[in-house]
Design a protein that fits this description.
- The chain has two domains: 92 residues, Ubiquitin-like (UB roll) (Roll), CATH 3.10.20.70; 313 residues, Glutamine synthetase/guanido kinase, catalytic domain (Creatine Kinase, Chain A, domain 2, 2-Layer Sandwich), CATH 3.30.590.10.
- The chain contains 13 helices and 16 strands.
- The strands form two sheets. Strands 7, 8, 9, 10, 11, 12, 13, 14, 15 and 16 form a ten-stranded mixed β-sheet that branches. Strands 1, 2, 3, 4, 5 and 6 form a six-stranded mixed β-sheet that branches.
- GO terms for molecular function: glutamine synthetase activity; kinase activity.
């Protein structure tokens, strides 16, 4: 069997499952799997939003570069493949997040001979469901610290972690390294860098395997940015721009100047839930609170590793990464097209510890949004970024996010927390 998988605007993985015999028949006859266009406008629990269209159909276009065997414990002998959305004429659908990102990547390669590669860190918190309404989850380890291997971790976490890593290896999703992360029950799996689209495809498949193996142990693996008190999880993306060495430094500076200019809007995609902003804090190594960059500075949302290699820290696992990275590439392309200068200086201090004059000298005049609504407002006003990503898609996204957030606000706090933990 083959899982035809796609990621919707809200970051929900959806799929159609076909026997390989029937998929091959569709390919040979030129037929496609169609789905109602309305489905792209529903929330995680199929709540209909005003972004739903009552007419139209889109078609799943398997991207066979992402075809991988599923792990041996899957319920079916199967493989998975990520899909883009195509229209009735056989062209990429203009509201497809994956196609939008692919278009920008192709433009960057065709015009500037730059190939973007990504390496992701998958930060996961492993939780047991307690059945207690007041305290619905507890981490599987408590005697837990960064890169530690306590008896608690060795006996209660390592059997699960080892099974996950082995399953990923069998699915051609090798982990570069893994270790305990700060926060009870939390582990970090570093994935190998790949060309951008392939990296995000692999990220989605990796997360699915982690979820599934954990469930076989009765454990909830969550990417929630604040799953339990004292824990904060991100989805840091390492972005490298690869091209002609002689011009790469200047182009990389132009690129990240564009990213910094649009960072508040980008947060609407990269930190798309209310709890995402619990990570926007001082002295937590989560990226800080100021729009800034710094070489090896983990208190900045953009950490420069080397000239063409940067890390985006203002992102978490609730994001649709095609949209989040699509926004980054679109902003960076604008920076290159307009030859924007990197006016922000390299920050080598904690921005919040600097004086107002020192921050101003470094070009730090804006803070990161403090809520998803602030991010959405920034995106709503950002006509340049909308134009590059696709105004219709961005408009639908904003509508859906606001209706999703209204739904969550109307839930009791604990219920809303469980709702998100069980979905991300």
């Amino acid at each position: 069997y083959v899982y035809l998988m796609w990621l919707d605007y809200m970051g929900t993985m959806r799929c159609r499952i076909l026997h390989v015999r029937d998929l091959l028949h569709l390919i040979k006859t030129g037929k496609r799997v169609g789905i109602a266009q309305a489905i792209i406008g529903v929330l995680q629990d199929d709540t209909i939003t005003s972004a739903c269209s009552s007419v139209g159909q889109i078609f799943l276009h398997p991207e066979f570069t992402s075809l991988r065997a599923c792990h041996p414990k899957d319920r079916l002998p199967s493989a998975s493949v990520l899909c883009s959305w195509y229209d009735a004429l056989g062209d990429p659908f203009d509201r497809c997040p994956r196609s939008m990102l692919g278009k920008s990547l192709n433009e960057m390669e065709d015009i500037y001979s730059i190939i973007a590669c990504l390496g992701f860190e998958v930060e996961v918190t492993f939780l047991r469901r307690t059945g207690d309404e007041d305290n619905p989850f507890e981490p599987i380890t408590k005697n837990h610290a960064w890169c530690a291997m306590s008896g608690d971790q060795w006996s209660n976490a390592m059997p699960l972690v080892a099974e996950i890593v082995s399953a990923l290896e069998l699915s051609a999703l090798p982990v570069l390294e893994f270790h305990a992360a700060p926060g009870p029950g939390k582990y970090d799996f570093a994935l190998r860098p790949k060309p951008a689209l392939q990296a995000i495809d692999a990220l989605i498949q990796t997360r699915q395997i982690i979820y599934q193996i954990a469930e076989l142990h009765g454990i909830r693996a969550t990417l929630h940015p604040a799953p339990v008190p004292g824990a904060a999880s991100g989805a840091h993306a390492h972005i490298s721009l690869n091209g002609e060495e002689s011009s790469m430094q200047m182009l990389a500076d132009n690129f990240f100047a564009g990213v910094i200019e649009h960072l508040e809007s980008i947060c609407a995609f990269s930190m798309p839930q209310a709890p995402s902003y619990d990570r926007v804090a001082e002295d937590r190594w989560t990226g800080g609170v100021w729009v800034a960059w710094g070489t090896q500075n983990r208190e900045c949302p953009l950490r420069k590793v080397k000239s063409n290699h940067w890390e985006m820290r203002c992102a978490d696992g609730t994001a649709n990464m095609y949209l989040a990275i699509g926004a980054v590439i679109a902003a960076g392309l604008e920076g290159i097209d307009l030859e924007k200068s990197l006016t922000h200086k390299d920050c080598q201090e904690k921005p919040h510890k600097m004086t107002a004059e020192e921050r101003l000298e470094h070009g730090m005049t804006k803070m990161l949004p403090k809520s998803i609504e602030q991010s959405l407002q920034a995106l709503e006003k950002d006509e340049q970024l909308q134009a590059r990503m696709g105004p219709a898609m961005v408009k639908d996204y904003i509508v859906m996010k606001r209706q999703e957030q209204e739904k969550l606000k109307n839930m009791p706090k604990n219920e809303a927390h469980v709702w998100l933990v069980e979905r991300y």
